[in-house]
């Protein structure tokens, strides 16, 4: 199997010397992100994927694209407006990037709608699941829905007219609206009105069992009831996307919490960056929308399918297990299961040796959440410190912190208030934790605190002992069920000392220091990674670098990887999302770039350098950092070494699984295009995540305690 994704790029036939001097050695960051979303869409088109999971991938594609426009396209438009002359590493100016992005998005959206309209909806209909438009409903169904409109919708709808006495209404970000053109029969005068589609109802209204209709269709068909005495000339749906990136005007604000809250209020008034409309929208209505929103025709996306397809999550939620992935239950890590059976605490387990856990294959609740719950309850625990980047709305971890504070323990929570799209949740938790007596701090001015660290200080017979957790994923109970992540628990004295100093630098005025075991950004991470790559170069063809990450876009790191490739070092890159490096210019033999997607979001960051350890032994690291400029230079990140031979062997097994020719994956060719590779059939045995799940389940079958996991909430998301 060798299936190509995306649009064609120029074939790159360059020597290593030519490539090193050409911007073509870098792929564009924004187009690479769209390539990632194309890989998501490829899963939606795969007939071997269960039907409702394919529908889910269409929804994920749509929600990813929404975020892309809110942040990345908004940033490019801002650069153009400001006259920023600088080009990206690939040589494209902001204007040229916007043009290329527009073309790419248009082709992807067409493919998304083709998959939905021509493949998925007919297949769902065969299974008794129908998503109908109004004209496809029976007369009785239309009558039933008109009654529903009268009872449930009419009382809450507010038509907003536009005329000399009524200015154009504000259209909030991602709100679905109806644009209505009405005519006064007495004067013949035409006027425009906007009606917002309410968000308190489900987007797809259930007509009968497994039969649905878009709620805007119900509104459109009955819209005349809102404009009595007027003739309805035209009705069509539209949707506006706005700049939603939160930027504090004053990072030195005396009250960061208040500053973030103010910025959140301002966000809803961000500049419009995209207008989505139904194909066939009235030309006069479209012209007025563009003028009022200060957009150009090139900012318009025309749709044949219903707008806002991220709402297809509602269809995926239908109780049809035969049309979804088979349920997998998490297991309790074997040593924890054995300890629980012997009534031992996690602290006794960690005193024996470090513990490495792999979520969601191994339970987050019986490891990380349990660790903090035991710390809160244990009378010997004197203090808890934690970094919180993203957490869930109902967080067991936050509840444990509150319990610990109420029991008189010293509890510190460093909450990153500016975690994109989670700012409001983090503000809420910051207030609640402070009310409970938790000492809440907001990190370092000018840097996002992205590391995932817990420090527990416990009084023991031998004196104070520090227990540490460092992970690749957030302390978020919801995403931990569907994001693939790794966490390392340790009571190593040197690591504990390092984490103590890290928290002192984050919460006080302690200067960042040299760390004995941790690699901490922004001061040390870039230089350490570059040093490890340089060291591997010394070994030539015996060298080997394996990196698993969410994104690779840093030009310095990429340049050095090219240098390593030229020296013969084998380089295996497993990159979920953005990848700005390509295996071209003579590097094809030594560089392999893969992307693995599945039911779980591949979120862990793992790094292996074949000769990076003591006496030329391999070195292994896990942590929060991708190889992106923001991670290396603008965030507080932590990588921690993994040193126990069993843990290193386990990481090697994961790498071997993800890189195996016997699994279905995506691989980048020399042109920078992604192609599906591996066995021709997409069956469980050919899926990397299935193999890891099966192996972990078999390994833990004697000691593991099955823990039911929630239905998948997402597979592709933000860190």
CATH class group of the largest domain: Alpha Beta
Shape: globular
- Mean pLDDT, rounded to whole units? 89
Strand coverage percent: 15-25%
Number of extended strands: 30
Find the CATH topology of the largest domain: Endonuclease, Chain A
Task: Tell me the number of helical segments per DSSP (H or I, 4 or more residues long).
Answer: 20
Number of domains: 4
Oligomer description: single chain
Task: Tell me the CATH superfamily of the largest domain.
Answer: Endonuclease Chain A
Could you write a compact summary of the structure shown?
With 719 residues, the chain is of the alpha+beta class. The chain folds into 4 domains: 3-122, Methane Monooxygenase Hydroxylase, Chain G, domain 1 (Up-down Bundle); 130-316, polyphosphate kinase like, CATH 3.30.1840.10; 330-507, Endonuclease Chain A (Endonuclease, Chain A, 2-Layer Sandwich); 519-707, Endonuclease Chain A (Endonuclease, Chain A).
Keywords:
polyphosphate kinase like, disordered C terminus, 4 domains, 36% helix, Endonuclease, Chain A, globular, eight-stranded mixed beta sheet, Methane Monooxygenase Hydroxylase, Chain G, domain 1, 20 helices, alpha+beta, 719 residues, eleven-stranded mixed beta sheet
